[in-house]
Records
---
Amino acid sequence: MRRTVYTEDHEAFRAMLRDFIAKEVVPVYPEWERAGHPPREFYHRLGELGVFGIEVPEEYGGAGMSTFKYQSIVIEETTRAGVSFGTTTVHVGLILPYLLAYATEEQKARWLPEFVSGELMTAIAMTEPGTGSDLAGIQTTAKLSEDGRHYVLNGAKTFITGGVLADLVLVVARTAPATPQDRRGGLSILCVDTKSPGYSVGRKLDKIGLKTSDTAELAFTDVLVPVENLLGEAGRGFSYLTHNLPQERLAIAVGGYASASAALRFALDYVRERTVFGTSVASFQNTKFVLAECATEVEAAECMIDRALELHEAGELSVADAAKVKLFCTEVAGRVIDKCLQLHGGYGYITEFPIARLYADTRVSRIYGGTSEVMKTIIAKSLGL
């Protein structure tokens, strides 16, 4: 089915990005995997290409477009090539909406120009050891100093994407105690300079997939954060976090769809070239049936993604809508990639084959951004259950 969600401008951006990935990313990608992240200069290169500034207002060096579709294309094209831009999706898709919605004009002028250029890389620190999806259980504290000029930050975070290379981290901390009546109250977001005394990066976590995404543990010991670095209002952090969840989950869903689509393409190429018992793997009825099933599921995921993109563009993508599209597309990705890996036989388990990388990289999509079980709970609530 022909896609109509993207315009000629979108497709021109896609063509530029596809060419850039083929020439400047694919040849060196194994080096990035061994290092655990792209070189810092790569982010400057993305800044030069304008990838970071599409949605940033022109006065701060961006293009001033209010759209998620270019981010969606970045996800689709990197996945198509079997690579990842590391923390780019978090930097643009997750952090930027918070800065645009809640930063003061002074904060925007201070951070956004270097955000656009790639000189200032960002991350967000929500998850803590032992809390998982329960953000209301956050224990990291930020107390006002006696002179009222700083917050004194103490605590620890884990599973922080981009935590190794980040220059500015949005830390969710408790600035006031929770109450039995309101466990979600008292949370605030502080923008923390990673060069601050008392800020430390702990272990760089060794994941089974997403090897080029630097994921780390962070610790804060009496870190002084200027009150000018409070994002939005104190105590409203939880509502800010939920405000951006639909887009975050849509981005993960796009990744799921793109991963399933890429797996189908990789499998088609492989079974046409591979021969077994004197005939191509593609000629077996089982292969045809499996790939027909996969193609149908990918098509269904694409339709759901395109509908969600249009709803998001119109400001109508609800929390329940986003939960549905994330649940469906990430589960489809799991099924399709598993079937396509099986068609590769033993080679599907060898990391030099892109299907193996997809298999490892995609598994976490049913966990982060809210587990599939959490998505089902949200959907059930929307049904009045």
---
Amino acid sequence: MAKVSAEQLGSEPIGKLLIKQAVPASIGILVMSLNVLVDSIFVGNWIGSIAIAAINVVLPVSFFIAALGMAIGIGGSSIISRALGAENKGKALKTFGNQITLTLLVTISMVVLGLYYVNTLIPAFGGKGAIFDPAKIYYTIVLYGIPFLALCMMGNTVIRAEGKPRFAMTAMIIPSVGNLLLDYVFIYIMDWGMQGAAWATTGSYILCFGYIFWFFLSQNSELKISLADFGLHMPILREIGSLGFVTLARQAVTSITYLLLNNILFNLGGEAMVAVYAIIGRMLMFALFPVFGVTQGFLPIAGFNYGAQKFARVKQSIYTAIKYAAFVATLVFIGLMVFPAEIASLFLDSGPDLPPEELAVNTFVLEHTPAAMRWVFAATPIIALQLIGAAYFQAVGKAVPALLLTLTRQGFFFIPLVIILPNFMGELGVWSSFAIADVLATLVTGYFLHREIKRNLTGA
């Protein structure tokens, strides 16, 4: 796989460049997603379906804190890409140093608060009844590793902003493989149950951090920062904050979505219904990996060329990214529509030797998941426009439209729909809200992206 330098982002043919950027990103996301998927399969088969539901309850809290690192990473990486495009390496170095300091300060503070309010947060996110105890075990252990995960997510976006997608891919693969190996040791061999699952996850974060730390110390990175770069600089912090807030807001809304769905589904069908959503949630992370890979590959290309004022290349990168992402999204859609029952059966043991209560839960989950999955992914072929459109505004430093478009799907459409529709349609109201929100958000994003291209990129 060819190596990509920062300078090549402004000179190579867009199609070839996007493949170079998107393939490693897709592979990295695939391995991470497979990690989540296989981890859930291991937990479901070796611990039980309630354990899957418990992990699903914890995810929004831990992911939100980790997303602070991703927000700082993406916000700062947009600055770094444009600074490298404008040949302002000093600003790129100062930005990276500020990213590290800010990530440490914010995530450690949030972890302290997260541990203090553990007994309040878990029930609020749907950790009720039989789910509470395993959720608390998993949450407490995983939270210790969240600062490492936040630094990894921040560092990974910077690696990609440097034009080094292969290293970013490796940084995503290492914790995924590590987590699966540790799962096998801690859960299957040592029989640690939920504690084993949690320590495997935390250990994988530390492995990832070790690799990223090595990368920036090695000759592979162009960003060699000094102690002075760690000092917080308000203009850079404001720019990181305005752009990073887009990512943070998206994750905050995602966490609210988990909170709502876990509680709504618990009221509709108890722990079993929460387990249905847990499986679908894993597929939302896994199945769309190539679309997310194209989006990740698109970001540094758009940012670098916008910083270099090569607007024709920016416009070409938008159209090419949408075309590629739409193609792979359609393939994903076909697979999910044809094989939903087979996918659901991978997660659970439905053998006759199970205790009656667990067998009843698993049977319910296997019966309800296929139809739910078809509804949730019904609009998948059109989401490429939605994702690339929002990513464009973030890549070029336009924080306000990036924020609004990022919040459109879940914040403006999905949350109101999922609050209202189940009152009239029950379980179907929950699942159909996904597809309706996707269609509406894609229409809105398409309008604003088309207007932006006509105003600022046409004729460049």
---
Amino acid sequence: MNTDILHAGELKKADPVFGQLSFDDHEQIVFCNDKDTGLKAIIGIHNTVLGPALGGTRMWNYNSEWEALNDVLRLSRGMTFKSAITGLNLGGGKAVIIGDAKTRKTPELMRRFGEFVNTLGGKYITAEDVGMETSDMDLVRDVTPYVTGVSESRGGAGNPSPITAYGVYMGMKAAAAHRFGTDKLEGKQVLVQGIGHVGESLVEHLTKEGAKVFITDINEDRLQEVSKKYGAVIYAGDDLYTAAVDIYAPCALGATINDDTVYKIKAGVVAGAANNQLADENRHGKILMERGIAYAPDFLINAGGIINVYAELEGYGKDEIIRKTENIYTTTLEIFAHSAKNGCSTHQSALRVAQGRIDTRKQGKGA
């Protein structure tokens, strides 16, 4: 056991949790540690005004615990606004497990994590995210009812990735309609960065419509597999952000639109599945707007997944899941109109609309 205790001066240097820029008035943060399974996890509960905080669990080999904390804070905050703007009676939460999912994840670790989730009594409901599979959620269900995205054989809605991709596709078409005057993607050149479960499903939708799809990923085997399956072209340029394409679709990790890339982007539309695509949501969102690039806010168009798992709580079926997901198209157009009317970025417009719903509920006026 480590008995060293930080002195007050040293603690100040450590950047306490409440001092993190991404803290943003979180209601609760839970640090989970279990020596026997090797579990080290953080659960972030940002806001529960509209309902219980629902958000997936991400397992990632973070460089530091501070990096993991910042990620869970940013992700859980995003879930608050995602549920609010989509019209769901849910709050925002997220969890991260520190470690390589390929080598560190075990059934025992997942069940132990589920036990920690259970101690929150339903204030946080978990689901699948990066590094997780439906089978992992089934293991969590063994020890807690506060989990969604379980397999259909256990009464769940199954893998949310295809629905997430469909929502991104709807949002992308709306952004194209705003920027190009038509939502037809046939002949449009689209660069998809990251071809995991969601990215691959998005590639499928795009190729079926006749778009010319370019793909990039750190996994060479996946590139070859998806390229062969859908006829997508593996991007071979030196800098994907300077690619002369119509649409850039970030579908990997966040913050790809940052100080190094925001002025390089040549695409007329940015619409993808990744969370927290803007490293600085205020500044970079404004720059995209000033450059005439139509940015479809990530937490709006990637909401298909939470719509899918919300069905498990509300008991609605596939038809209603599709209807709610297709409504992302209409909401995206409304956000572009709101942005133009108010002279603010689409990201800020989406935040204002989402926050408005939260404030209305908080004031007891219903929403």
---
Amino acid sequence: MGTPLLVQNAGEVSLSGTWTLVSLMASDQDPRRALASLGQVQGWNLLGVERLDSAAAVLLWRTWGRRWPERLEISPTLRATLERVADLPPESPAVRDYRDSLVGRVGRLTLSILRNMLGLVELYGRLVLDLFFLCRHPRDIPWKEFSANLYKAGAQALPVSALVGFLIGITISYLSALQLKTYGADLFIVNILGISIIRELGPVLVAVLVAGRSGSAMTAQIGVMRVTEEIDALSTLGVSRTIRVVLPKVAALTVAMPLLVVWSSASALLGGALAAFWQLDFSFTYFFSMLPKAVPIANLWIGLAKGAVFGFLIALLACQFGLHVRPNTESLSMRTTASVVTAITLVIIVDAVFAIFTRNLGMPS
């Protein structure tokens, strides 16, 4: 195999040797750089070239400016190789890669949000159709799956929700008592604790806890079923995955959340009453006897409604992200994290919407 050689004499370039990709890469003189540095050339002599492959032909064609030179001495075999290269369509202009730019990141985020919203609407539609089916076939209602999810998402969450609610109640009551005592408004501690906990903090606090605890568990469970192909096995057996997997989780968390809100709010009020007793010397009897007068019953219904809506959204999001887990562990961890973050963000947004539409309800006159 001859080494590719390039000689320029009196405006003419003579090529000899073997001009292939392998020989060009192995050559000590780097003929590619020599071709790129050529000046004005009147003719080309390729009669000494023993072999010419497509890579070298493309290099020559680009050196010629994608047109045939005025004077060319070449064998018919090599000319046929160059003609095949000349017949190739022109290269398309380079497209700027926007993936790492701000516009690209915003675009990908927007498309991801739209896809998730469309997936949620689709999953919600399936659940509605499944409910109509179960109304006509009550024997197919998955009571065991519903009770199991109700126990996991509700009963097992009672200790942690009570502890967190109790500590939050103590903290809010302690900090509020310090400020109220300064202005001589000690009696309003009941109003502050009652409205803030029953109407706002109770539902939101429980929603954040449930999203991090039960929501992540639901996403991980369904994701593992996707990885192990159990979801596909259900479809193969003719079993609806939404009836057996998704619907029990959504229904159980929707039922459990209002109960958890009441439980956590009661624990927070107990902690607040304890802190008020320490700081302001309010008895428990006075605190809880003033609570119904300071907090209208409408606030309790608003808190329960928030709990039901939050539970439904958290479970729906968890199932949606779990069903879209790809069969690998990296996708499982990413979807679980995205499920928790999205659920907490959506809970805060929905809570703001509730605050706007219920701003005139349940406020003491």
